[in-house]
Amino acid sequence: MDVSPEHLVEQARERFQLQDYYGAIHLLEEVVATGRPFADAHHLLGLSYSLAGQPENALAQLDRALQLNPRYVEALLHRAIVLNELGREDEADAMFRRAAQVGGETRQGFPAPVAAKLANQHAALGDAYLESGGLNQAVHQYQEALALGPGFHDLRYKLGRLLLQAGRALDAREQFEIIVRHRPNYLDGAAMLGLACYLAGDGLAARAVWEECRERRPEDPRVDAYLAMLARNEPAAVPAGTLPPAPPSPPRRAAGGRRRKRS
After folding, report:
1. 210 touches 204 (CB < 8 A)
2. Angle 203-207-213 (CA atoms, 0-180°, nearest 5)?
């Protein structure tokens, strides 16, 4: 039975709370291997590496979390702590200042760290609604989450998938376009943008997106499958120079019909 990345992250949090950092690392590495953009997973993995005495691996994962969400205050603070432990004090001071600056901002009237926590709670509630069959309620909760954390593109990716599931391809396309605009190297987001375009009836845009994905990741079988699906569903092209089919012949006169005499 396949376990969702979200469930693996929750299991990793439990291992982390029990101070089983290597157990958390094992689970989170499995999540990261899926290629899904989970800023929380990279942050927790970085923290686990740090507490397991692997600072360089910790920095790599914290950097990845900050690439996905540059305003992730906890990741900024933990990166500063790791840098300080490595003796890179100037870089650590810069990180502390950046975290203080971001943490002093507000979103929807809440301090940034509080807004980020509320955004994740909305997303968790959305997941609970989805598990109970409440797709529309799940969509609403993810929209609320993104109002509090517009830079949380891992949540935006999930919202886009939910919108596709709800048959709202145009709304999903808008979400994936935002992801691709801010994360042009995130090819999973681009592949989903192509799918949203296709389901919205824009086959030309879907083809353009998927062909670019294939150029950048030729080993991805999913993109080839999408393009093959598009080719099957397109009307057969008429070769250049081919004459159009002749119009149908008029119906024949019934046998034995009387012909009118000429005057």
Report:
1. no
2. 145
Q: Is the pTM of this model over 0.70?
A: no
User: Cα 22 to chain center, whole Å?
Assistant: 27
Nearest to 116 by CA among 72, 170, 179: 72
d(CA 167, CA 174): 14
Average pLDDT estimate for 214-236: 82
**Residue 113: both structure tokens together:** 């760290």
Three-state SS at 19:
coil
Fold of 5-103: 1.25.40
Phi first, then psi: what are they for 155, rounded to 5°?
-70, -35
The average pLDDT across 10-23 equals: 90
- The two structure tokens encoding residue 135: 């797709």
DSSP letter assigned to residue 111 = E
Q: CA 84, CA 253: separation in Å to the nearest integer?
A: 98
Answer yes or no: are the C-beta atoms of 123 and 148 closer than 8 Å. no
3-state DSSP call for residue 220? coil
pLDDT at 64 over 60: yes
Task: Provide the mean pLDDT of the chain.
Answer: 84
In the chain, where the domains are located? 5-103, 167-233
The Cα–Cα gap between 125 and 141 comes to: 7
What contacts 193, CB < 8 A, 6 or more positions away?
173, 176, 177, 179, 180, 209
Q: What is the distance of C-alpha 108 from the center of its chain?
A: 24
The encoded tokens of residue 241 equal 């120079």
Residue type, 89: E
Measured CA distances, 19 to 15, 47, 48, 59, 91 (Å): 6, 11, 9, 20, 28
What are the DSSP calls for 43-110, one per residue? HHHHHHHHHTT-HHHHHHHHHHHHHH-TT-HHHHHHHHHHHHHTT-HHHHHHHHHHHHHHHT-EETTE
